[in-house]
Q: What sequence folds into this?
């Protein structure tokens, strides 16, 4: 229930109260509300884990009325009226078993629900464990499509799926080169989440009448594996009109972008797909990343069109001395979504919170994300999440190229 609806309901309640002497039902105070955060606080994805923690704690601060001039009402939402939100973090590392154990430990600390846990396989293992415990689990930082295709009752995702992000990439490609690009190269890290995203891109290419060359794409060893130069040469030999680079870690994204720059090979269009393509990571690569297009569920430029979102981003930068990343924004949004459901339920009872999640209807202005809002479908995927495509510009800045109306120059 959003701000205007709450005000309307409040007016109705006042009128009804003046017409009857029935006793008023008092709301039970919520007290301290604990929300668990699973994040990779150590290991290769520790930077993403730090961003997730910042996003979660920042959301809790706003919910607790600690945002100074920035308030929840700026988004059409409200602060906790009779309680306080506390984030309980746990280190998921990059290991599914560790994450599953950490999830159980969080439930032992009486968390109302969990958010996280970044890597798709880690998220899958942890949410399977919370499913058995009937604890709500909201994911805001993993696009792997299979997560919401498992038929789980307690798992929800606020962000876009790999398919939505791939669709945005293809839309940007079509807008950029029209019908001229028909042969597509796909170069992907040989790990489970990247394989899944690459398969989705290949399926969409077939549906769109594109030819993937070579058929099925080309893989490269992830992490500190061999130099991917040979994989780049295989793509180069096919002379594709556009190349999709698929990587779910920033290390792999940086490695493959550099590999394209080394031999001086530059396809007409390069598109990034996967969580590895973060602006800060691409900036570190230097000129080799200039001009690259990449899909994302979060774009600061688009968010700046919303005055409330712009104020929130400015406050975040002041507090954490850096811009709000996609992981921070996704975790921030997941915490706010879970907290809104708790507030709507007026309870920390897991069944009532789950029911409130199922009936949530948050409009686009109620979130900092460049989406149409938040409403969960039958699979518990946010049906209003959308993909945005940004372009990396010289100097490390970015610009929204799709949808074009979200760019500042629109």
A:
């Amino acid at each position: 229930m959003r701000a205007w609806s709450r005000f309307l309901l409040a007016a109705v309640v006042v009128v009804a109260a003046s017409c009857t002497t029935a006793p008023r039902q008092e709301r039970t105070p919520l007290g301290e509300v604990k929300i668990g955060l699973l994040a990779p606080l150590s290991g290769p994805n520790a930077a993403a884990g730090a961003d997730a923690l910042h996003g979660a704690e920042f959301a809790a601060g706003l919910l607790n009325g600690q945002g100074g001039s920035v308030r929840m009402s700026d988004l059409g939402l409200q602060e906790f009226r009779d309680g306080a939100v506390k984030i309980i973090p746990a280190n998921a590392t990059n290991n599914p078993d560790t994450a599953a154990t950490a999830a159980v430990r969080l439930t032992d600390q009486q968390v109302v629900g969990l958010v996280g846990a970044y890597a798709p396989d880690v998220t899958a293992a942890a949410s399977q464990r919370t499913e058995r415990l009937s604890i709500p689990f909201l994911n805001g930082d993993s696009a792997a499509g299979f997560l919401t295709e498992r038929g789980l009752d307690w798992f929800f995702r606020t962000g876009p799926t790999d398919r939505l992000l791939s669709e945005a990439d293809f839309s940007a490609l079509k807008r950029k080169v029209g019908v001229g690009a028909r042969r597509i190269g796909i170069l992907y890290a040989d790990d489970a989440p990247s394989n899944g995203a690459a398969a989705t891109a290949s399926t969409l290419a077939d549906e769109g009448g594109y030819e993937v060359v070579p058929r099925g794409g080309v893989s490269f060893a992830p992490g500190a594996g061999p130099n991917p130069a040979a994989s780049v040469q295989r793509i180069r030999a096919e002379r594709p009109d556009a190349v999709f680079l698929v990587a779910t870690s920033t290390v792999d994204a940086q490695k493959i972008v550099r590999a394209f720059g080394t031999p001086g090979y530059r396809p007409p269009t390069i598109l990034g797909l996967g969580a590895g393509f973060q602006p800060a990571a691409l900036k570190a690569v230097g000129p080799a990343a200039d001009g690259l297009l990449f899909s994302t569920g979060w774009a600061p430029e688009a968010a700046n069109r919303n005055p409330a979102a712009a104020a929130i981003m400015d406050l975040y930068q002041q507090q954490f001395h850096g811009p709000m990343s996609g992981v921070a924004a996704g975790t921030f949004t997941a915490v706010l979504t879970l907290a809104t459901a708790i507030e709507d339920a007026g309870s920390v009872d897991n069944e009532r919170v789950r029911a409130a999640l199922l009936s949530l209807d948050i409009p686009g202005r109620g979130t900092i994300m460049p989406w149409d809002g938040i409403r969960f479908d039958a699979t518990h995927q946010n049906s209003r999440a959308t993909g945005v495509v940004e372009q990396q510009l010289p100097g490390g800045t970015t610009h929204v190229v799709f949808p074009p109306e979200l760019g500042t120059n629109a």
Notes: The CA atoms of residues 8 and 121 lie 44 Å apart.
